[in-house]
Structure formats: structure tokens, C-alpha cells
Design brief:
alpha/beta, Rossmann fold, 7-stranded parallel sheet, globular
């Protein structure tokens, strides 16, 4: 149970975390925040810039999470390096903006592979090593697109809808083993996810976020705070929740 006399900034102290998509944006913010709060971290990303995060207690792993064997290697690295795995954050995600009629099968399958299948594979391997310890936390980065949509994001919305349902289903499968699974439904966050879609991805997201009731987009660090909470014992009664952090977008959508 939670020790309410403890200092919350050390909420993941002594834990070992694996964070995917950790080279930038939300993933980078989560990796750095958890490390600052006492966790040992494996930071996984296919972008070699993830190596810039290397420091004592924070080990980068350059890997394409959608490839066969990537999840096994990442979880194995956590166990081999730090002796266990307590937290998995399935953060990595990509997007494509195309009308469905213009989308190729390759477009569709690449989005599903990164956003949904990789989360399944990493979760499966994490559960295998968490179960004997009877504890663990998995936090998935879902989206407001898990619940509503708009033209050109069919593949992304489908993948995030799948991730929300993966969260719920896995949560009820593994809670008997002391493993909690939850997700954060993020709205517009100022990251690089749209850099291959528009000229100024962060700028576009900052502007798009102004449509939310809160009137702005989030910074990655704001989402990292919620992820750290969900991964900690402070969220001990949360099972299968999709915690919306979207500035109110899903409240007003539709």
C-alpha cells in the first residue's frame, strides 16, 4: 500500500523501467523523469539519438520495436542489467495522414506494427518476468483518437483504439498476478510525431491544441507526470483505466 508519509518525487525509487520511443517527446520525458525519481531505466528507440540519454542507471537501446525479437531483447536487457523489470511504458508511436482511399497496405500495417503489435509483444514479454515477482505496472500511451476521429487518421485511430482495448483486456488477465495495466489517453502534445507529415510538427500540434477546452497543447513533461503516477504504488487501485489527458477534447468531441 501507499506510504502517504513518503515523498512522492521518489515514487518509482528502486524500480526498473523499460520505456519505448524514448529518444524524444513523451518517451524521453518519461525516461528522464523516472530516472530522476530513482528508477533504473532502459530507454528503447530506433533513433540513435537515444544514446544521448546514457548515464548511470539509464541504459539506451537502439532497436526497431516492431521487429521480431525486439521485445525479448529489451526485456532481457532490463533483467540482465538491473535484475528485474517493474515498469513497462509502451510509448512509441507513429502516424500517417492520408485518406483511407489513398492509403497503401504497407502504410496501414506499419502503423499497426508500431502502435499496437509492438505494445502487445513488449507487454507479453514483460508479463513473463513480472508474474513470478507478483508485481508490476504497464502503462500504455493511448490517445483521444482511441475514442473519436477525423479524416486522414484511420490507421492511427484504429491502432490507438486497439491499444485501449489491449489495455483493458490485459488488465483483467494479469491483475491476479499483481500486475496493473493502465493507459494515458493523450491529446495534442508538442512532440516530433508529425515531423514527417508537416513542415513544423511541434508548431502544428501547438496550434491544433488551441482547439481543446484548455486552449493549448501539452508539454511532454505534463504527460510524464501522469505516467509516473500510474506506474507507482500511488495508483495501486487503478486497473484497466484509460486516463484522459487531452485538455478536455474528448469531453466536447461530437
Amino acid at each position: 500500500m501507499v506510504d502517504f508519509n513518503a515523498e512522492f518525487p521518489r515514487e518509482v525509487d528502486g524500480k526498473v523501467a523499460l520505456v519505448t520511443g524514448a529518444a524524444s517527446g513523451i518517451g524521453k520525458a518519461v525516461a528522464l523523469l523516472m530516472h530522476a525519481r530513482g528508477a533504473k531505466v532502459i530507454a528503447e528507440d530506433m533513433n540513435r539519438s537515444v544514446e544521448d540519454l546514457a548515464r548511470p542507471g539509464l541504459v539506451p537501446l537502439v532497436s526497431d520495436i516492431s521487429k521480431d525479437g525486439a521485445a525479448e531483447r529489451a526485456v532481457g536487457l532490463a533483467v540482465d542489467t538491473f535484475g528485474k523489470l517493474d515498469i513497462l511504458v509502451n510509448n512509441a508511436g507513429i502516424i500517417i495522414n492520408k485518406l483511407l482511399v489513398d492509403m497503401t497496405r504497407e502504410d496501414w500495417e506499419r502503423i499497426q506494427a508500431v502502435n499496437a503489435t509492438a505494445a502487445f509483444l513488449h507487454s507479453r514479454e514483460a508479463v513473463k518476468v513480472m508474474t513470478p515477482r507478483k508485481s508490476g505496472a504497464i502503462v500504455n500511451i493511448a490517445s483521444y483518437a482511441s475514442y473519436f476521429t477525423f479524416p486522414t487518421i484511420a490507421a492511427y485511430a484504429a491502432s490507438k483504439g486497439a491499444l485501449a482495448q489491449l489495455t483493458r483486456t490485459l488488465a483483467i488477465e494479469v491483475i491476479e498476478h499483481g500486475i496493473r495495466v493502465n493507459a494515458v489517453g493523450v491529446g495534442d502534445v508538442v512532440t516530433n510525431i508529425l515531423n514527417k507529415v508537416v513542415d513544423d510538427g511541434p508548431g502544428f500540434l501547438a496550434k491544433h491544441g488551441e482547439a481543446a477546452p484548455i486552449g493549448r497543447a501539452a508539454q511532454p513533461e505534463e504527460i510524464a507526470e501522469i505516467v509516473s503516477f500510474l506506474a507507482s504504488d500511488r495508483a495501486s487501485f487503478m486497473v484497466g483505466s484509460i486516463v484522459m489527458a487531452d485538455g478536455g477534447m474528448t469531453v466536447t468531441a461530437g
